[in-house]
Design goal:
By secondary structure, the chain is α/β, with parallel strands linked by helices. It is built from 8 helices and 5 strands. It is globular. The model has no long low-confidence stretch (mean pLDDT 95). It binds adenosine-5'-triphosphate (ATP) and magnesium ion (MG).
Length: 207
């Protein structure tokens, strides 16, 4: 049986996470892998309810601290209900956003104590870390201009989004699992680069 592999896609608004996670999952399936494609928040019935609270509702007075708790609740459900069972079955799991988003949005840019964010994250993930994280990077204004109908997060001030991008840079320097890929190029070219990175990790995973 193949060993399971967890690949996460991260990056600021409109960088192409959803586009590329779908394409990557399709390509992996075509190569004969058993693939689970999911997203955060979402991916479970609880996650979908929390997603609508977190991303649609302006009127609830959510602070970054409250957001953190809701995101981690959603993540705990996804990890135990979807990701861990899939990894045990030897599948490749592709997730559109994961714990790094929380570190960056609620911690680095949102101001919640980073150690607290990390501790809660480890608990929600049961210690699970991605094998590979693709960080899609492009200038904030380019990303925001790609977003057609902005949600609650995307409507935050540009200064917040600049901090988000900066925070991702900090994480990328800190973790070897994170590979940065710039996404100004056409979608096909960017996807090709992603596949090359994934190919190398798949090879290591088989050894
Ligand atoms: N390399 C690219 N060049 C031009 N347009 C792109 C590129 N990548 C993605 N797009 C377009 O940008 C828009 C945003 O992409 P996508 O929804 O995949 O980003 P995202 O990172 O998932 O955004 P969000 O943070 O809002 O979930 C889409 O309309 C997509 O087709
Ligand atoms: Mg998306």
């Amino acid at each position: 049986m193949r060993r399971g592999l967890l690949i996460t896609l991260e990056g600021p608004e409109g960088c192409g996470k959803s586009t590329h996670s779908r394409r990557l999952a399709r390509w992996l399936k075509g190569r004969g892998f058993s693939v689970v494609l999911t997203r955060e928040p979402g991916g479970t019935p609880l996650g979908r309810k929390l997603r609508s609270i977190l991303l649609d509702q302006e009127s609830l007075g959510l602070t970054p601290w409250m957001e953190l708790l809701l995101y981690e609740a959603s993540r705990a459900a996804l990890v135990s209900g979807v990701i861990l069972p899939a990894l045990k079955a030897g599948k490749v799991v592709v997730v559109d956003r994961f714990q790094d988003s929380t570190w960056v949005y609620q911690g680095w840019a949102g101001g919640v104590d980073l150690e607290g964010v990390e501790r809660l994250g480890r608990a929600a993930c049961q210690g699970l870390e991605p094998h590979l994280t693709i960080l899609l990077d492009l200038p904030v204004s380019r990303g925001l201009s790609r977003v057609a109908r902005p949600n609650r997060m995307e409507r935050k001030p540009v200064a917040f989004h600049r901090k988000v991008r900066q925070g991702y840079g900090v994480l990328a320097r800190r973790h070897r699992r994170i590979r940065v890929i710039r996404t100004e190029a056409p979608v096909g070219e960017v996807q090709e680069k992603i596949r090359q990175v994934v190919e190398r990790v798949l090879k290591i995973n088989r050894e």
